[in-house]
Amino acid sequence: MAKSEMKENWDLKATKELLNNLQNQDLENKDIELPEDTIKIDDLRRKEALNKLYSLVDSVIEDIYTTGKPVIELPSRSNSNIIWDEESDLLLLGKQIQQKQFHSLTSVVDITRLMRVLEIINELLMKDMHATKREIFYTDVKLFQDQKNSDKSLEDVATMLYTTRNSTHVVASARGSCVGRLRIRDKNDIIDLEGLGSGGWGISPMLDNIEILESDAEFIMVVEKDAAMMRLAEARFWKQYPCIILTAQGVGNVAVRMFLKRLSKELQLPVFSLVDSDPYGHYIHSVYMRGSKRLSYESPFLATPDIKLLGVLTRDLDKYNVPDDCRLDMNKTDIKRTQDLLKEDFVKKNKAWKTDLELALKLKKKAEIQALSSHGFEFLTEKYLPEKLSTGDWL
Amino acid sequence: MRVFRKKDGGIVQLIDKERMREWSIELPLIFIEYIRNNKLDSYDDDKVKKSIEKYLDEIMEDVAVPRLIEVLEGDNVEEIINALERIEKIANENLDLTRPIRPYLEELLKKDNKKITNLADSILELFRREERRKELSEKRKVMEKKEELFMEGKITADEYAEARKEYIKFRDNR
Question: How far is A25 from chain B (nearest CA, A)?
Answer without folding.
Answer: 13
